[in-house]
Specification:
The complex is a heterodimer of chains A (267) and B (440).
Chain A: H1 2-17, E1 39-43, H2 58-69, E2 75-79, H3 82-91, E3 95-101, H4 107-110, E4 113-128, E5 148-151, H5 158-162, E6 166-169, H6 172-180, E7 186-190, H7 191-201, E8 209-226, H8 232-248, H9 251-258
Parallel strand pairs in A: 1-2, 1-3, 5-6, 5-7
Antiparallel strand pairs in A: 3-8, 4-7, 4-8
Helix pairs in contact in A: 2-8, 2-9
Chain B: H1 2-17, H2 36-51, E1 57-64, E2 67-78, E3 81-82, E4 89-90, H3 95-108, E5 129-133, E6 139-143, H4 150-155, H5 173-185, H6 198-206, H7 223-235, H8 239-248, E7 272-274, E8 280-282, E9 288-290, E10 293-295, E11 315-316, H9 318-329, E12 333-334, E13 337-338, H10 342-349, E14 367-369, E15 374-376, E16 391-395, E17 399-404, E18 409-414, E19 417-418, H11 423-436
Parallel strand pairs in B: 7-19
Antiparallel strand pairs in B: 1-2, 1-18, 2-3, 4-11, 5-6, 7-8, 9-10, 12-13, 14-15, 15-16, 16-17, 17-18
Classes of the chains: A alpha/beta (267), B alpha+beta (440).
C-alpha cells in the first residue's frame, strides 16, 4: 500500500512539475511575470554603461554602490536604446530612475526629470588619419572652416555652423563609417565612448582614428528621476546619501580608476 | 599502351560519375516540355532591359523535370566585365529559405521544436514587451501575451519587422517609434562590413519591444537573423560552417558563401543603381542609405567577416540556387542526398502558416506564407505565378526564384539592381514568359 501511494505520489509530482506539457507554445509562467524589483533603467554608453555583467560600466557601479551605501538594493537594467529607457522610466512604475547623458535629453524631456550628476564628461573631435587632412594640431574651430562635421540628431552645432563648417546628421555608427570612408571630416565623441564604438566596428583600425586637441563639449552623466513618480523623492534622497558616502570613502575614486576615467570625476 | 587506354577510360568514367552542375545543364528544351521559340522570347526580353539600361546584367535559369533547359547571361557583371553564367550575386533575402531548411533539419534531428520559445535558447528573449499605439497617437509598452517561438520567426509573426519597412508607413506612430529604437540600437540587415557577430545584434534586438503580439501579425523582418544565431547555439557551430556541411556540400553548391574567398571576389557582380528610365550607374564602395535601408556593396568581402546574417547574408549563383530549389522540388533530396523529409518539405512549402493574417507585403491577397517562402493560394488575383502551390522568394538586390511543384518548373532571375521596387515589373513579365514556354 505504501509503495502504491509512493508510486501515485511520484506520478503526481512528475505531472505537476511539468504543467506546460499539454500546452503550446510551451513556456514557463515565470517568463511572463515581468520585472519584480525596483530598478534603474540605462542605455548602452561604454565604458559608463556596457551591458557586460562582469564589467557593467563605471556609471552602473557608481549607482549600485551608492544605493547599497544607503541600504538599498537596486539593479540597473540596460537597454540598447536611450528612448526606450526614457519610455520605461515614464511608464514603468518599477523604474525608479534613468542613467544617461544630459546632452542626449531635449529641454522638453528634461522638464519632468530631476538630475543627480555623477560624472562630468568631455567630448573631443575625432578624425580619420589615413589619406585625410592632418588635424592633429587643430586647436581652434575656425581652422575647420569648409570641412564637414557629423552630428547626432539633437546635437547643438551652432558654433560649428557659425565657423563655416558643414553639418551632416546621422546615427553614431553611420557617422563613424562615413568618417572612415572620408564622406565627412570629423565627428564629436566622448573619448572612451568613441573608442568603444571604434573597437566594435573597426578593431583593426583603432589607431587610424585620432583626436584633435580641441574640446568639443562638456556634459554631465547623471541619474535622472521622474518628477511625476511619487516615490522618486525617497529614492533620490537615498541615492544622494549613498553617493556622498562613496565619494568620501574612496569607492567612487576606485571605480573611476578601474575604468581609467579619473578625469570624469565630479569636482 | 593498353594500360594507358585503361587509365584514360577510368578517368573518363570517374569524371562522368562526378556530379557537377553541368550534369543538368543544357538539355534540349522540347525534351522537358518547353518550347524553344518561346524561351527565345525571354532572351530578347532580357536583352531589351539591358539595352534600355534598366539593369546592368542578369542571369536567367529555367529548369523543368530536374533539368536546366534555359541558362543565359545578359549584359555586364561589372564595368568592362561581361556577365557570365557563373557570376556570383548577393542573393540577400533568398538566404531566408536556406536558413529555414537549416532550422527544419534541427527539428528533424530532434534538437528543437517549432513551438519552443526562443528564450529557451536565447535568454534575452524573456520578458519582452510590445509597442501599443494609443488612440491619441502616443504609445505604451505592454508585456507579451506569450513568448516568441521558433515558429513565429520562420513565418514572420514575431513582431520583428525590418527597419526599412518603417519607410512604407511614415505616418504610423508605431513604426516611427520602432524606427527610433532600431536606429539607436544599431539594428540593421547586416549588409555593411562590421566586426560584430549576428548574435551581438540579435541580443540587442531582443531587448527592444516588439511591433505586435507574437503570432498576431505578419511583419516581414529579422526573424531569420534570430534563427541564424539560434542554429549556432543549438548546433554548436558557426552558421557558415553549419550551412556548408549540412546544405552546401551535400547539394554541391560550390559558390555559396556569407563571405567570398579571395579568389572568387572577382566573380561577384557589381551593384547597379537604376531609375528604370535609362540612368544606370555602378554603385561605388561605401555606405549607401536609401531611407532606412542601409548597405554597402562591399559587405561580402570586407570587414571582420563574422556577421553571418541568416536573413540576408549569402551570395550565390544561379546554378547553386537551382540545386537548392531542385532539392525542395524533389521533396527534400537531390542526387541521393536527403536534406529534409517529404513531410517537412510539405510543411515548409505547401502549408499556409499565417492563417488569415493580413500580409499586404506579399504580392496580393492570393498569396500566403509557408516557412520562409510565399505560396500562391489563389490564381484569381492580380499576381499569378501560374499554378496554385507555386512558392517563391526574392532578394532586395533584385533577385528572385519561383518553384512550381505541379509543373516541376524552376525559374530563377539574378540581377544586382537597386532599388528593389523596379525589378517587380521585370520579374512578373519574366515569369509569364517562363510559363508561356510550357508546351506539353
Amino acid at each position: 500500500m505504501f509503495r502504491l501511494l509512493m508510486l501515485i505520489g511520484g506520478i503526481l509530482a512528475t505531472v505537476l512539475a511539468q504543467p506546460c506539457l499539454a500546452t503550446a507554445p510551451r513556456m514557463s509562467a515565470a517568463k511572463l511575470a515581468g520585472d519584480a524589483a525596483p530598478h534603474v533603467v540605462a542605455y548602452e554608453y561604454p565604458p559608463l554603461v556596457t551591458g557586460d555583467a562582469a564589467v557593467p560600466g563605471a556609471a552602473v557601479e557608481i549607482v549600485t554602490q551608492s544605493f547599497a551605501a544607503a541600504g538599498k538594493a537596486v539593479a540597473v537594467e540596460n537597454f540598447p536604446s536611450k528612448n526606450l529607457a526614457l519610455q520605461l522610466l515614464g511608464e514603468d512604475g518599477k523604474a525608479i530612475a534613468m542613467l544617461g547623458e544630459a546632452r542626449g535629453l531635449s529641454a522638453s524631456e528634461r522638464k519632468s526629470l530631476s538630475e543627480e550628476k555623477i560624472l562630468l564628461i568631455t567630448g573631443q573631435y575625432l578624425f580619420y588619419v589615413p589619406g585625410g587632412k592632418d588635424l592633429k594640431q587643430v586647436n581652434d574651430v575656425k581652422a575647420l572652416k569648409d570641412l564637414t562635421y557629423g552630428a547626432i540628431a539633437g546635437e547643438s552645432t551652432d558654433s560649428l555652423t557659425q565657423a563655416g563648417i558643414k553639418v551632416v546628421i546621422d546615427e553614431p555608427k553611420l557617422l563613424l563609417r562615413k568618417l572612415q570612408s572620408k564622406e565627412i571630416d570629423f565627428i564629436g565623441s566622448f573619448a572612451a565612448n568613441g573608442d568603444a564604438l571604434i573597437a566594435r566596428l573597426f578593431p583593426e583600425e583603432k589607431n587610424n582614428f585620432a583626436a584633435m586637441p580641441l574640446k568639443a563639449w562638456e556634459s554631465s552623466f547623471s541619474l535622472w528621476f521622474d518628477s511625476n513618480n511619487k516615490t522618486s523623492k525617497e529614492w533620490r534622497s537615498a541615492f544622494s546619501e549613498g553617493f556622498k558616502k562613496i565619494r568620501q570613502n574612496g569607492v567612487y575614486g576606485e571605480i573611476l580608476k578601474k575604468y581609467a576615467i579619473e578625469n570624469a570625476a565630479l569636482k | 599502351m593498353s594500360i594507358l587506354v585503361h587509365r584514360l577510360l577510368l578517368i573518363l568514367l570517374l569524371l562522368q560519375a562526378c556530379p557537377t552542375w553541368s550534369q543538368e545543364a543544357s538539355v534540349a528544351a522540347e525534351t522537358v516540355g518547353l518550347a524553344p521559340s518561346r524561351l527565345a522570347n525571354i532572351s530578347s526580353f532580357m536583352r531589351q532591359h539591358v539595352d534600355d539600361k534598366k539593369i546592368g546584367g542578369a542571369v536567367v535559369l529555367i529548369a523543368r523535370h530536374g533539368k536546366i533547359a534555359y541558362l543565359e547571361n545578359f549584359g555586364q557583371a561589372d564595368t568592362g566585365t561581361p556577365m557570365k553564367k557563373d557570376t556570383i550575386f548577393r542573393i540577400a533575402s533568398m538566404t531566408k529559405p536556406i536558413v529555414s531548411v537549416a532550422v527544419l533539419q534541427l527539428v528533424e534531428d530532434g534538437r528543437i521544436l517549432l513551438s519552443d520559445p526562443v528564450s529557451k535558447y536565447i535568454p534575452e528573449f524573456s520578458n519582452q514587451k510590445v509597442i501599443e499605439v494609443l488612440p491619441n497617437g502616443g504609445y505604451r509598452l505592454v508585456p507579451v501575451k506569450r513568448e516568441v517561438t521558433i515558429h513565429d520567426l520562420l513565418r514572420h509573426t514575431a513582431g520583428l519587422p525590418y527597419r526599412f519597412v518603417t519607410d512604407w508607413y511614415p505616418d504610423d506612430p508605431l513604426f516611427r517609434k520602432l524606427n527610433q529604437y532600431y536606429g539607436e540600437a544599431d539594428i540593421d540587415l547586416g549588409l555593411l562590413p562590421t566586426d560584430e557577430t549576428a548574435g551581438d545584434m540579435v541580443k540587442r534586438l531582443a531587448r527592444l519591444p516588439l511591433s505586435s503580439q507574437p503570432g498576431e501579425a505578419f511583419a516581414y523582418g529579422h526573424g531569420p537573423d534570430v534563427l541564424g544565431y539560434l542554429i549556432e547555439i543549438v548546433s554548436g557551430v558557426p552558421l557558415d560552417k553549419y550551412l556548408q556541411t549540412r546544405i552546401f556540400e551535400p547539394l554541391q553548391m560550390k559558390d555559396s558563401y556569407f563571405f567570398l574567398p579571395d579568389e572568387k571576389v572577382g566573380r561577384l557582380s557589381a551593384l547597379w543603381e537604376t531609375d528604370w528610365n535609362g540612368k544606370l550607374d555602378k554603385m561605388p564602395e561605401g555606405v549607401k542609405k536609401a531611407g532606412n535601408f542601409v548597405f554597402s556593396p562591399e559587405y561580402p568581402y570586407k570587414g571582420g567577416k563574422r556577421f553571418f546574417s541568416g536573413a540576408a547574408g549569402l551570395v550565390s549563383t544561379a546554378q547553386d540556387y537551382f540545386r537548392f530549389c531542385q532539392m525542395l522540388l524533389n521533396h527534400g533530396q537531390l542526387d541521393g542526398k536527403r536534406l529534409l523529409s517529404r513531410k517537412t518539405v510539405e510543411l515548409m512549402t505547401d502549408t499556409n502558416h499565417i492563417d488569415n493574417l493580413s500580409a499586404d507585403f506579399l504580392h496580393s491577397k492570393g498569396w500566403k506564407f509557408g516557412l520562409g517562402v510565399a505560396i500562391e493560394a489563389d490564381r484569381g488575383t492580380d499576381v499569378d505565378a501560374g499554378t496554385v502551390g507555386t512558392y517563391e522568394w526574392a532578394g532586395i538586390f533584385s533577385t528572385r526564384f519561383s518553384v512550381d511543384p505541379k509543373e516541376e518548373k524552376i525559374t530563377i532571375l539574378l540581377t544586382q539592381t537597386h532599388p528593389f521596387a523596379h525589378h517587380v515589373d521585370l520579374w512578373d513579365k519574366l515569369l509569364n514568359l517562363s510559363n508561356a514556354a510550357l508546351a506539353d
